[in-house]
Amino acid sequence: MKILYFSATGNSLYVAKSIGGELYSIPHMVKQGTYEFTDDKIGIVFPLHAWAVPPYIVDFLKKATFNCDYLFAVTTYGIYSGAVGKHLSDIGDEAGFNFDYINRIRMVDNYLPTFDMKKEIEKEPKKQIEKHLEAIKSDIAVSKKGMLKESVLDKMLTSYMLRRDGKPFSKKRLKVHVFGEGIENYIYVEDSCTQCGICARVCPVDNIKMDNENGKMSLSDRCFSCFACVHHCPSNAIHINGEVSRNRFRNSNVKLQEIIEAND
To answer: Which of 37, 40, 67, 82 has the most CB atoms in a 10 Å sphere around its CB?
Structure first.
């Protein structure tokens, strides 16, 4: 079994590790130009962005070929998952493949413009992550088939977010979900930056370079707002306009080095 995953703060990496099998980082596959995969079972694990599949994952899936008997997807989310199942199915239809199983697991929401990470971590036990994860693992072990049950409202809201194409709800909010437009107008770096380069190493799309002239990081135009650079900055020097607090998050079961190795 192969598990293809993307993870910014460790939630999806933890899920991928828990499911088992051979782990393949999607950022690594993209950088290597590897889009064909063969095994008896193949799984895709990633975090939901704005109630839908992140544009980075959409782009990957549309280029990928899966040679397997059982194709599944598990998405991690924080508060609301919208109609991510339908979105995934639509992507598969367009790309020429079908998912046998799609599920989701509720974890800590790391969306900084809306949530205080300290408060979200305090709510983590109530989400019964291990219980739901074990159920998903059992389903996959027996190759259970099934899709998410999503309401008309779920589908309407996800469709609405996709139509918005990342337009912010207010000027104070960070623009998100716009693949390729970047966030250079919504991010700032404090003088506490030590030029350690962690931000560049955890960025899955090589969007960050260390600028030796001004002593800070510089951004390109490939950002899709995964927040990995913000959450993992050791000196808490990277900030976005509209963030609720300075608190940051990384899944307690995942080490920073694992995120670096997955995205570098």
So the answer is: 82
Q: Which residues contact 197 (CB under 8 A, 6 or more apart)?
A: 210
Burial class (CB in 10 A: 0-12, 13-18, 19+), 147: middle
- Considering the domain boundaries, does residue 182 fall inside one? no
Cβ atoms of residues 47 and 122 within 8 Å:
no
Of 161, 155, 176, 58, residue with least CA distance to 110: 176
Distances (CA, A) of 206 to 3, 183, 184, 221: 22, 14, 14, 10
pLDDT digits (tens, 9 = 90+) for 59-95: 999 999 999 999 999 999 999 999 999 999 999 999 9
pLDDT per residue over 125-155, tens digit each? 999 999 999 999 999 999 999 999 999 999 9
- CATH of residue 58: 3.40.50.360
Give the 3-state secondary structure of residue 95. Answer: helix
pTM here? 0.91
Instruction: Note whether 140 and 72 are within 8 A (CB).
Output: yes
Contact indicator for 37, 64 with CB cutoff of 8 Å: yes
* Same-domain pairing of 34 and 144: yes
- Domain span at 216: 187-263
Interval 209-231: pLDDT, tens: 887 666 667 778 788 889 999 99
Residue 170: CB partners within 8 Å, gap ≥ 6? 242
